[in-house]
Amino acid sequence: MNNINIWLLVLEICYLALLIFTCLKIIYDTRSIPKTLAYFLFVLLVPIIGIVFYFSFGINYRKKKMYNKKLEVDESLKAEFKEQFNEINKRLSTTTDVALLQNLELIKLLSNSKGGNEMILPNEKAELLINGEMFFPKLVEELKKAEKHIHIEFYIYEDDEIGNQIKDILIQKVKEGVEVRFIYDDFGSSAIRRSFTRNLIEEGVQVFPFNKLKLPALANRLNYRNHRKIVVIDGETSFIGGINISDKYINAKGKDLFWRDTHLMIKGYTSFSLQRIFIADWNFSSNENLIINKKYFPDIEITNPKPVHVQIASSGPDSEVPNILYSLIQAINLAQEEILLTTPYYIPEQILQESLIIAALSGIKVILLVPQKGDSKLVDIAARSYYEELLDAGVKIYFYQKGFVHSKTFVSDRKLASVGTANLDARSFGLNFEVSAFVYNKELANQLADEFYKDLEDSTEIVYVDWLGRGRFKQFSERIIRLFSSLL
């Protein structure tokens, strides 16, 4: 045996050892069976590249050292919070509000310590904002009113017209003595990494990237992105939803692609929940230690005799459980008549797929709205592999054709509504930092349901018989891509 053959044998043995080690690690570290099988297939069918992919994308390197969400709370405020929460619980125990009564198990789930300890809180108002045309003017209006502080974080922030308009407002508010803190995701907002943020810092805005990418080519860092879109103004007014800071969300005349999205403005105590999430993100990003005190959690007066109750669900790779996924499953299980779901990406966990099927088989009207064409061909192909099971169970599926639907919304029985940042895919439920608002209010749920049915007017329903008639090659390719759907 010559030297070349000896070295080849040594390399083969080393590769085999590495392959066995990788497979054992996949079994040990990956709790999801579909994801485990997908990683197995990839490392076995795609030599070397599959292993590199797993060690780049598959391992949650940061989970063990992810930021500490335990926040320091002023003792006097802690006592006040406890008193307020006890009062809220007393009111809930005697409530006659059907939106609350029907969803008590969901409320308890999110209030559980493993579910995030998120209390349901009363608010003066919660206002639905459709598309950038409604969101941006309202955001600009409220930012200009700020007197004490502005806390803002976005996944995508562009150096364009709306991005610069908001930047100018932030700089102006600093000059007026307002504290301004700004978090941007270092991957999603790559366009503002240099001169844009440098200008903000020079003008006194406090700016930090979330999970800074020192070497963007290291793919494993791309998994754990901050996909949240949160604004908190003076601790009382807040915004949450799917809209990023970008001109593409403004549907001006002559624009090539219509962008359909949804946001929510909240005035009241639920802003405290979003404030807490922002402060945790800020302390992680800046290595500072902002304390939860009256400065950021002020007294709020609720004059509305029928306050709007909202509860926040947040999750990330450091969460004990996938809070947003579990909340959605519980909401589906509690529905009695109708479920309306909108998402740009549908690559569900099996439990979500089965929950929708069970709901439809139980006689509940279930309608899913997705884009006719998304921004990822592979994701579109994988998503289509799930539709046959849904259609067979009686779920109605519509393709949005007016443009790209980017909303992440849910309506149950026109009593419960959800607006947030999480897509219906594995990445949102386990790999990204996400946030959703659950609104227990018939009026807002009716508004969101009405908007949903308006969107259906610009959509085409998938007919089950026609769907079954798709070419065999297309159906086969969808099933092949589905094997790897947990990795998309």
Overview of the molecule:
There is one protein chain. By secondary structure, the protein is of the alpha/beta class. 43% of the residues lie in helices and 20% in strands. The protein contains 18 helices and 19 strands. The protein has helices spanning 3-29, 33-45, 49-58, 75-93, 98-101, 104-111, 131-145, 161-175, 195-202, 270-286, 323-334, 350-361, 377-384, 387-393, 426-431, 442-456, 464-468, 472-482, and strands spanning 121-130, 149-154, 179-185, 206-210, 230-233, 237-241, 258-260, 262-268, 308-315, 338-342, 346-347, 365-371, 396-400, 403-405, 409-412, 416-420, 424-425, 434-440, 459-461. Strands 4-3-2-5-6-8-1-9-18-16-15-10-12-13-19 form a 15-stranded mixed β-sheet, with helices on both faces. It starts with a helix and ends in a 6-residue tail after the last helix.
Give the tags.
single chain; 488 residues; alpha/beta; 15-stranded mixed sheet
What does the secondary structure layout of this molecule look like, with pairings?
Blueprint lengths: L2 H27 L3 H13 L3 H10 L16 H19 L4 H4 L2 H8 L9 E10 H15 L3 E6 L6 H15 L3 E7 L9 H8 L3 E5 L19 E4 L3 E5 L16 E3 L1 E7 L1 H17 L21 E8 L7 H12 L3 E5 L3 E2 L2 H12 L3 E7 L5 H8 L2 H7 L2 E5 L2 E3 L3 E4 L3 E5 L3 E2 H6 L2 E7 L1 H15 L2 E3 L2 H5 L3 H11 L6
Parallel strand pairs: 2-3, 3-4, 7-14, 10-12, 11-17, 12-13
Antiparallel strand pairs: 1-8, 1-9, 2-5, 5-6, 6-8, 9-18, 10-15, 13-19, 15-16, 16-18
Helix pairs in contact: 1-2, 2-3, 6-11, 7-8, 11-12, 13-18
Provide a compact summary of the structure.
The protein is built from 18 helices and 19 strands. The chain is α/β, with parallel strands linked by helices and 488 residues long.
